[in-house]
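Friendly challenge for the regulars: who can give me the structure tokens for this chain first? No prize, just bragging rights.
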Amino acid sequence: MFRENIIAELKDKIARNPQDVENYKNLANYYIGCEDLNNALIIYKEVLKLVPDDIQSLINIGSICYYRKMYAEAIEYYKKVITLDKENFAPYYNLGNVYAEIENFELALSNYEEALKINPEKAEVYSAIGYLFQDVGNLEEAKSYYKKANKLDCVNYENYINIANIEQKMGNIEEAVINYQRATELNPNDTKALLCLANAYSSLKEYKCAHDCFKKVLQIDSSYYSAWVCHAITYCDEGNNQEAIELLKHAIEIDPNKSNAYILLANILVDEKRFEEALSIYKTVSQIVPDNPKILTFIANVCVLMDNYTQAVKYYKKAIKQAPKDNEIKLIYIEMANSYINEKLKGLK
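First reply, four minutes later:
Bragging rights claimed.
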């Protein structure tokens, strides 16, 4: 009711003074605050009927079009602003975002660069260019732009996460840890950064630090499926299969429709020679992801370990039927068949 009263009041002001642009803008801005983009768009266009060159309304319409994925319209409005005010930072930066979204690297970069000519102190532009280079796989260039952004805005924890992700991808795990740590210092409750830090510690075999980070993540969000799975992997790497099994069972309870935890749990059970349990879990996974030939191959492999070659052949053939071009599955099947034949021949001697 409160919202309806404010809207009614603003509309009444417009009705009483239909030439007062500020009333339209106030109503449009209120709609934006209520996340009612459709009505905001309608009102901003009413502003343009009164003042066709109203720069802020043009920018706002462009931004609404961008958020609604109406990219051609967004480009049109931002370009209109540039024709009116070539020294305005916003349309160049926003155009860069639009072109980045539609994966036009060259136009995105050129507009970001134009934005920097107008205001070279905008950290968010350097971050945006960093994303741009990261998307095309130019990690060194991406990292350099994230670092430039950090010099201008040293409290933006996301830049540190981006740098850390790049360092990890490049194999510089120690550098990744430093940047993940900085990100978690700036935002201690960011579970994504904490999870990445935990995984980085695990890669360095610093298991105590890894476990501490995983526990922090799960204290913040006990339903974080990936954290349970990654924590289990760390225990597994450490040689503690029993702890890993318990964590994976918990992950399955959190989301029984995701296959990762089932597969990892079954793999551990195979290593523990608990074949019947592993087979049951693989079969459960095959119901969750019925078109995955790898799962059928896992089932066949367990059947071989259980000396049930009839069932193994059945599942290998199903896997090959689903993925006829997968030479790895064919090779496994051939090796199994050869092994089985050789064993039979030995028995005949």
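The chain has a mean pLDDT of 93. Residues 211 and 261 are 18 Å apart (CA to CA). Your move, everyone else.
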